[in-house]
Specification:
Layout lengths: L23 E3 L4 E3 L2 H7 L13 H7 L10 E3 L8 H14 L10 E4 L1 H8 L5 H9 L6 H17 L4 H15 L3 E8 L15 E6 L1 H13 L4 H10 L8 E7 L5 E6 L10 E8 L3 H4 L6 E6 L2 E6 L5 E5 L5 E5 L12 H18 L3 E8 L2 E9 L16 E4 L1 H4 L7 H10 L5 E3 L2 E5 L1 H5 L1 H14 L1 H11 L29 H21 L5 H19 L2 H25 L4 H5 L7 H16 L3 H8 L6 H4 L6 H15 L22 H10 L4 H25 L4 H18 L5 H26 L14 H10 L4 H15 L6 E3 L4 E2 L13 E2 L1 E4 L2 E8 L13 E4 L7 H4 L4 E4 L7 H9 L3 E3 L4 H4 L5 E5 L4 E5 L3
Parallel strand pairs: 23-24, 24-25, 25-26
Antiparallel strand pairs: 1-2, 3-4, 4-7, 5-6, 5-7, 8-9, 8-14, 9-10, 10-11, 12-13, 14-15, 16-18, 16-19, 17-18, 19-20, 21-28, 22-26, 23-27, 27-28
Length: about 950
């Protein structure tokens, strides 16, 4: 059947070809073809007949090459999942399915990739055309459309060589002469664990006769170069030269019902819930949107939810070939396509297939005479992986990335170093890290405090955890007197509000980083890895210094105290936001303001500005000295990099390129600052923020003194204001010192990687990023590396990049989404967490990559998440909306520092808001409105 371009990617429904054949029995050395009626009488479903090789010689001859180095045709029974390179992903899975006891697969054969290669050998300048395709921008749709159409025309126009044509026609004849067939593409990069390629190539249903089969095989070959297939490969890093096309030809049947089975819930990812969609006739009606499908959810052999759709149309075979629509009589339109018993039986078959392949499957099926045939099974590539455990117990995990404001996938070296750094064990899944909080939730003593702290930081995580707790028995409750883990932030901390405490901590951190920079210079080989491993303990000591923890906790508690008390006493919402403007010692906010100072140096020199607009390589700093004002500009940028060059977007992953490595990443922001600000803007902005905080303090204290018992309330509030302004700035320093150390480690590790490349151990320096720290230690020691492991990790990382990590994940695989549970919002508003008070209107700039930010005064930044690497953008915007964040995460802290109204934790903000729309951001009440165009 024809395949829609967005098939599988937008909805659970799938293409659902219905195929069946007859069955063979094996005699002593001879395969005998038995009639269909024989098996019908025995109650056995036809599986793999239609291939009538009478002897081993006939079987070899049927393949198309008896003495050659390859085969143009293979019976599906000869195929298994190890032969993807020969028969493509779809055929490999079909062949493997036929080997599973109790799973029935239609008869057919595969035209192998040898045949495809043989045909394209004759294509004029095919190599040059593929090279051209590889150089295209995946977003250049017009050029991709034109170039891919040209390649398709060439492939379809090639005369199929006689021996290839004879092999295909002979196999078609043996399948049943003029029998109706389905002709389906099977690319070598299709239906793989990391990338499905679903819907990228073509399928044709009800193809009548060998001549028509041969024509449609050529069309499948050409479909390797559809616009959507070329774009998909470009986006996923697949080389056009390395992907080849096989074609599956199978007998076709016309079922009572057809549909799709997911052995894990495609919406929640729960591995214990199966999802079934079913409709009458051929399944393309579901895919093309002609009809709605019946939908079932099954757990533990029980249908737990069912929706029966009104099905007005079915797709049937046309006598002349192809398919046609047929109206369903009104009396049947609201009848279920399957009984509940059939649904449960189908799911049991799916579980058998899932167990065989070792992972959840996306299965196409059809129903004939109350028997199910499986016509395709592929891994579900959209499920987020589950952390590995071996205890058989239930577990609840909380995302680390949502706390760190960096939810992107990390490479193995980055994951392992972060795990070495943290004080708490962290589980790994999908290139991200998670904390197992099952014990905290199980203990009545720690549960309430944990939920309180988490809920204040990120209400969606708090609500998701409460949802899990409401499920009877998933998290077992420990006795009330069981030992409980202490929860930071719950108990009040004892510390004097003394600015010298912060300056002392800063001095300690600077001295510690300077020491590691000095000592690491003489280290190489195994000694270097040993040094870093030992120094990580010093990093941990500074990160989790008890004094540092008390300072951060004191600032958080003072913030909560101010917001709660001033709301109760004065009706002030989020009062701490204004009171924490321009606090001292906030290294991240200083970083953004310092880039305004760099712009001040560059702005007077038009030749430098013009040069920077055209920079496209990292060596531009040395080129500046030849321009008027260039030396000053170079020195200003270098001084900034000396102070902040260890930072970058996603900086908790040591493998990410630092600004010091790629200073071009800063140029868009510098140029924006040059054009949008007047000289001295940094000092004025900091001073203005400090003045506004002082004025807000005076106003609040005056209003409090007018209240009953006002002097006491004012004194307590003044103490808390002093406390929050003294300690809040330090909150950004521990990560600053951590990434400073990471940058030192990285420079040394890349120097070691360079030595390994020169020694022929590694192909390239970046290969070390795909090794865990302990694995890299072994490679440095032994000078031996598993290159295959490195390559597999690269492929896995690409697949992880496409996944969205959940805030809360269970050991069943369920991604539990929390909600805000609010009913006080304007109609159509997008709800989030208010983290920086105020209301602002402006143009939305949806930015997913800092390097592509094009901001103007008055813009509102809308993005998935922000970490310190985004801070330089904050000086140029008037409001902030993010999908991820909490009250004390980076974006919230810096937004308050700069006085930007901000709402974080807005689910799907970058998809719900279009670039250029006008927004109203209410950072006091926590919602965003999309305004009508003016």
């Amino acid at each position: 059947m024809a395949v829609s371009g967005n098939e599988w990617s937008c909805r659970p429904s799938n293409r659902l070809p219905a195929l069946v054949g007859t069955r063979q029995e094996k005699g002593k050395g001879v395969r005998r073809l038995l009639p269909f009626s024989t098996y019908s009488a025995r109650g056995v479903l036809p599986q793999d007949a239609g291939w009538a090789a009478e002897s081993a010689t006939d079987a070899r001859r049927a393949k198309g090459k008896v003495d050659g180095v390859g085969s143009y045709v293979l019976d599906l029974r000869e195929v298994d999942r190890t032969q993807v390179a020969v028969v493509g992903g779809k055929a490999a899975h079909l062949g493997e399915l036929s080997r599973i006891e109790g799973i029935r697969v239609p008869a057919g054969f595969c035209v192998t990739t040898d045949a495809f290669r043989r045909v394209v050998e004759d294509a004029p300048s095919m190599g040059d055309r593929l090279d051209l395709l590889s150089r295209l921008d995946p977003d250049d749709r017009e050029e991709i459309r034109s170039r891919s159409a040209e390649v398709r025309r060439i492939v379809e126009g090639i005369a199929v060589p006689d021996d290839v044509a004879a092999a295909i026609s002979g196999a078609s004849a043996r399948l049943g002469g003029e029998v109706a067939c389905a002709v389906r593409s099977s690319a070598t990069a299709e239906d793989l664990p990391g990338t499905s390629f679903a819907g990228q190539q073509d399928t044709y249903l009800n193809v009548l006769g060998p001549a028509a089969v041969l024509r449609h095989v050529s069309r499948c070959w050409a479909s390797l170069f559809t616009e959507r297939a070329v774009t998909y490969r470009l986006r996923n890093g697949f080389d056009h030269r390395e992907v080849h096309m096989a074609v599956v030809v199978q007998r076709m049947v016309f079922p009572h019902a057809a549909g799709v089975l997911f052995t894990a819930d495609p919406v929640t990812s729960d591995r214990k819930v199966a999802s079934v969609e079913a409709g009458f006739g051929l399944g393309e009606a579901l895919v093309s949107g002609l009809v709605n499908a019946d939908a079932y959810r099954v757990r533990d052999d029980e249908v737990t939810a069912k929706v029966v759709a009104t099905k007005e149309l079915a797709l049937r075979a046309s006598p002349a070939g192809g398919t046609r629509q047929q109206a369903i009589e009104p009396a049947r339109q609201n009848q279920p396509a399957l009984t509940d018993a059939q649904v449960v039986r189908l799911v049991r078959l799916g579980r058998r297939i899932e167990a065989h392949f070792g992972r959840p499957q996306d299965i196409e099926w059809c129903l004939v005479d109350d028997d199910f045939l499986v016509v395709q099974s592929r891994p579900i590539t959209t499920l987020f992986p589950i952390p590995e455990t071996d205890d058989g117990e239930n577990h609840v995990y909380v995302s680390v990335g949502h706390q760190q404001m960096m939810t992107d996938a990390m490479k193995p070296l980055g994951l392992s170093l972060w795990q070495l750094t943290t004080p708490r064990p962290m589980a790994e899944a999908g290139g991200r890290l998670f904390v197992d909080v099952t014990g905290l939730l199980a203990s009545p003593t720690s549960r309430a405090g944990f939920l309180e702290v988490v809920g204040k930081s990120d209400p969606l995580i708090g609500d998701a955890l409460r949802t899990v707790l409401e499920r009877d028995g998933f998290v077992p409750s420990l006795p009330d007197d069981a030992p409980a883990e202490s929860i930071p932030g719950v108990a009040p901390v004892e510390i004097e509000t003394d600015p010298a405490v912060v300056t002392e901590l800063i001095g300690r951190g600077e001295a510690s980083v300077a020491a590691v920079e000095r000592d690491i210079r003489t280290k190489s080989g195994p000694e270097l890895l040993d040094f870093i491993l030992a120094d990580v303990q010093e990093l941990r000591r500074t990160l989790f210094d008890p004094l540092s923890t008390r300072v951060i906790t004191a600032a958080m508690q003072a913030t909560w105290w101010l917001n709660e008390r001033l709301h109760d006493w004065l009706g002030e919402k989020n009062a701490a936001d204004a009171l924490t403007r321009s606090v001292p010692h906030n290294v991240t906010s200083e970083m953004g303001l310092s880039l305004l100072d760099v712009a001040d140096v560059i702005r007077p020199h038009p030749e430098v500005v013009d040069f920077l607009r055209g920079v496209d390589d990292e060596g531009f700093l040395d080129e500046l000295v030849g321009l008027a004002g260039g030396r000053e500009a170079r020195d200003a940028i270098r001084a900034y990099l000396d102070r902040y060059g260890m930072r970058c977007v996603g900086e908790i992953d040591i493998t990410r390129p630092r600004w010091g490595e790629r200073p071009t990443a800063l140029l868009p922001v510098i140029l924006t600052n040059v054009g949008n600000f007047e000289p001295g803007a940094a000092g004025r902005r900091f001073g203005q923020g400090r003045q506004e905080a002082w004025e807000k303090e005076r106003e609040i204290l005056e209003r409090l003194r007018a209240l009953p018992d006002g002097e006491r309330k004012a004194e307590e509030t003044k103490r808390m204001i002093d406390r929050v302004r003294t300690f809040t700035g330090w909150r950004e320093y521990p990560k600053y010192f951590m990434v400073s150390r990471y940058s030192v480690y990285k420079r040394a590790l890349l120097a070691e990687a360079e030595r390994l490349v020169r020694a022929g151990v590694l192909r390239r320096e970046e290969d070390v990023f795909f090794l865990r720290f302990e694995e890299l230690h072994d490679v440095v020691r032994t000078h031996r590396v598993d290159d295959g492991l490195v390559r597999r990790r690269e492929v896995a990382f690409r697949s992880y990049q496409a996944l969205t990590p959940p805030r809360v994940l269970t050991s069943d695989g369920e991604a539990v989404a929390g909600v805000y549970r609010r009913d006080d919002l304007p109609a159509g508003a997008l709800v989030g967490l208010p983290v920086s008070a105020g209301t602002v209107e402006g143009r939305a700039r949806v930015v997913l990559d800092v390097a592509e930010a094009d901001l103007e005064p008055g813009d509102i930044l809308v993005t998935a998440h922000t970490d310190p690497g985004w801070s330089p953008l904050f000086v140029a915007i008037t409001g902030l909306v993010t999908e991820v964040g909490g009250l004390m995460t980076h974006g919230a802290v810096i937004a308050r520092e700069y006085g930007l109204p901000a709402v974080v934790g807005v689910e799907n903000a970058t998809r719900s808001i279009r670039d250029g729309q006008r927004l109203r951001v209410n950072g006091t009440d926590g919602y965003v409105e999309i305004l009508p165009a003016t």
